[in-house]
Amino acid sequence: MGLRLTLKPFERLIINGAAIRNGDRPVSFLIENQCKFLRESEIMHESGADTGCKKLCVTLQVLYLAEVPAAAIELFYAQARDLLAMEPSYAPYLSKIQNEVEAEQYYKAVKLGRELIAYERNFLDPHSLKAHAI
After folding, report:
1. Under 8 Å CB-to-CB from 62, ≥6 apart: which residues?
2. Is the separation of the CB atoms in 54 and 117 below 8 Å?
């Protein structure tokens, strides 16, 4: 049984490293075999990675899509050490991500990376912190 995807007009998709952009109409297709893919809504672009956690998420995407992820894994650990030294409260998130990386569950690591970004956003935005404290 395959996975049916529907792309919106002009939506992007990465499948096994190939960048694909839909045309001007919605399209549905069926992926019939195992592959690695990220939808546009899941993609963190390097140009938008303006914080340490976002940069780590870009690395996790590279790790997920890479055929041989060794270099990306090494970079992940270096970035994680730097983030932990900068902000110890990131530890629970980084630990969960590390567990998924070690289990070679790279897509799960990408998803957990998004949780880290959400935490970072709340941590860095004093207005969000006040809202959560109430």
Report:
1. 69, 72
2. yes
State the Cα–Cα distance between residues 1 and 95, nearest whole angstrom: 34
Task: Indicate the burial class of 77 (C-beta count within 10 angstroms; 0-12, 13-18, 19 or more).
Answer: middle
Indicate if the alpha-carbon torsion angle 57, 131, 126, 93 is positive or negative.
Answer: negative
Distance CA 9, CA 25 (A): 5
Q: What is the CB neighbour count within 10 angstroms for residue 53? A: 26
User: In the beta sheet, which residues pair with residue 102?
Assistant: none
Beta bridge partners of 72: none
Assigned token pair, 96: 């969960």
Tens digits of residue pLDDT in 7-53: 999 999 999 888 999 999 999 989 998 889 999 888 888 988 999 99
- Could you tell me which residues come within 8 angstroms of residue 104 by beta carbon, excluding any fewer than 6 positions away? none
**CB 79 within 8 Å of CB 61:** no
Question: Which amino acid would we find at residue 56?
Answer: L
- Residue pointed to by tokens 């270096």: 78
d(Cα 107, Cα 29) in Å, to the nearest integer? 21
What is the radius of gyration, based on Cα positions, of the chain?
17
